[in-house]
Write a structure and sequence with these properties.
The protein is mostly beta strands and about 500 residues long. The protein has one helix and 31 strands. The strands form six sheets. Strands 22, 23, 24, 25, 26, 27, 28, 29, 30 and 31 form a ten-stranded antiparallel sheet that branches. The structure holds beta-D-fructofuranose (FRU).
């Protein structure tokens, strides 16, 4: 039986979506139908299609009691919106159905695992928060919460784990059929730990061990873990809070981290060998992955992070986007990411300029637009003072990706994008030319820019809410730049 809360949310969403025109949404990035979204949830394959859920508050552009929005796709780029999957409608999740994951059971049902949040008023007027792990099962459209929820309670926490911060289960099934789930628990001392549970049937869970912990390094509390084997290594993705800055690597505050290492799955022992930010830009948090039927590990993230999320740009009718799905690989203990190859079939006519020389400023005929796939290769990066690609230009508006040859850094800058709040609008990170060249692939989609450096060695993301008429692209160089441009409009 559908609860009143879920029914109301579904009806509200359907009615409100009628007020938003298709061109007010991104062309191929996911948003909520209306209202607010944050983390991607339940990214998985079910009955041969990709299913994706997301943290959802349809009623306003602000975070509120979390529902699970739901979409599906056959190509990871064109998504069909399905009715809202879950609402916070029970005693154990009435304050929110927080982040989680999904998989297909052998009997054909779809299994969701999520964090139920319960808030209880205490006699002294304070509120007690309890987070537990819960299950729901469904057929790809309708879900029923499991009658024996919650399936992992505070009593199963490792010693010192706080009942108020225990969340974000990511479930998978091993080759031998055993279910595993990694999630985060905050200890009394404020540090985060990634904890592992196992189950024979997907419903009855027992504690295995602690896979890693922040220990005052790499932030304090962690959120949204993912854990998978890739290219002979084991990768753990985390979204830590309160990171401390590390020159050329981490910035202060919320961040994302990939730990690359090895895993002894019989001893539940993960050994870190390297760590790095997952995305080096401004708007990226809470990534989650799935394995595609052809064996690719694909990641999608919330294209936003908490500190900036309170500042909703003027005039938007919904708030929050997810990134482009990205294919991951590991080389030399480094995580690489590139746009999913499905994007190639959306490329329109190619416009190419080879070996251009530039000192000063230049526009190129046919190189413009806000929904495009463009690769700019700077051939003499090592000799150059500076080189900028400015996009979403028009009137006083522009955003830029600039290379400073002296410092060896790339800077993302949206100070002039029309986003009029005093929040983070630029970010710098180190880049290394390869054989003297720097290759920048830009994916623009109406309200965002994602930049992939040197074939996916680094990715950097930012949202831009500049009016769509500002669609110019300019190149600028100090010194003489030699560069090539290859550009395709993306057609959807
Ligand atoms: C991460 C997060 C998760 C939580 C969810 C709540 O962005 O804080 O830890 O489950 O968002 O919406």
């Amino acid at each position: 039986m559908m609860s009143e809360k879920l029914k109301k949310a579904r009806e509200f969403e359907a009615a409100q979506m009628k007020q938003i025109l298709p061109e007010e949404y991104p062309a191929f990035h996911l948003t909520g139908g209306v209202g607010w979204i944050n983390d991607p949830n339940g990214f998985s394959v079910y009955k041969g299609e990709y299913h994706l859920f997301h943290q959802y508050h349809p009623y306003s552009n602000e975070w509120g009691p979390m529902h699970w929005g739901h979409v599906k796709s056959s190509d990871l780029l064109s998504w069909e919106r399905l009715p809202i999957a879950m609402a916070p409608d029970t005693d154990y999740d009435g304050a929110g159905c927080f982040s989680g994951s999904a998989l297909e059971l052998a009997d054909g049902r779809q299994l969701l695992m999520y964090t139920g949040v319960q808030e209880t008023e205490k006699e002294d007027g304070s509120t007690e928060v309890r987070q537990t792990q819960c299950m729901a099962v469904g057929d790809g459209v309708s879900y029923e919460k499991y009658e024996a929820n919650p399936v992992i309670q505070s009593a199963s926490l490792p010693q010192g784990g706080r009942p108020s911060d225990f969340r974000d289960p990511k479930i998978w099934q091993d080759e031998d059929g055993t279910f595993y789930s990694i999630m985060i628990s905050m200890r009394e001392d404020g540090n985060g730990q990634a904890v592992l549970y196992r189950s024979e049937n997907g419903f009855d869970w027992s504690f295995c061990g602690i896979l890693d912990e922040s220990c005052g390094k790499l932030g304090t509390m962690w959120e949204c873990p993912d854990f998978f084997a890739l290219d002979g290594k084991q990768v753990m993705l985390l979204s830590p809070m309160a990171m401390q800055p590390e020159e050329g690597k981490y910035h202060v505050g919320h961040g994302t981290v990939a730990l690359v290492g090895s895993y002894d799955k019989n001893a539940f022992k993960f050994t870190r060998e390297a760590d790095q930010p997952i995305d080096w830009g401004i708007d990226f948090y809470a990534p989650q992955t799935t394995l595609t039927p052809d064996g690719r590990r694909v990641m999608i993230a919330w294209m936003q992070a908490w500190p900036n999320s309170k500042f909703v740009p003027d005039g938007v009718k919904y708030f929050g986007q997810l990134t482009l799905p990205r294919e991951l690989s590991v080389r030399d203990n480094k995580l690489f990411q590139n746009p999913v190859r499905e994007l190639l079939s959306h490329r329109g006519e190619e416009i190419c300029y080879e070996n251009m020389e530039l000192s000063g400023e230049k526009t190129l005929e046919g190189i413009e637009g806000r929904t495009l796939d463009m690769t700019v290769t700077l051939h003499n990066a090592e000799e150059l003072q500076s080189f900028s690609v400015k996009f979403a230009c028009g009137g006083d508006f522009f955003s830029a990706v600039s290379y400073n040859g002296k410092k060896g850094v790339l800077c993302l800058d949206r100070n002039h994008s029309g986003y009029n709040y005093d929040i983070v609008h630029s970010r710098e990170f180190g880049v290394e030319p390869k054989n003297g060249e720097l290759k920048l692939r830009f994916i623009l989609d109406r309200f965002s820019a994602e930049v992939f450096v040197n074939d996916g060695e680094k990715a950097a993301t930012m949202t831009i809410y500049t009016p769509q008429e500002a669609d110019g692209i300019r190149f600028e160089a100090e010194g003489t730049a030699r560069f090539s441009v290859q550009k395709y409009n993306l057609i959807f």
